[in-house]
Amino acid sequence: MALVLTSVDDDKAEDIVQIDLRGRSDVADYMVICSGRSSRQVAAISDKLADKLKQDLGILSKIEGKETGDWVLIDAGDVIVHVFRPEVREFYQLEKMWLPADQQRKTIV
Question: Which pTM was predicted?
Answer without folding.
Answer: 0.88
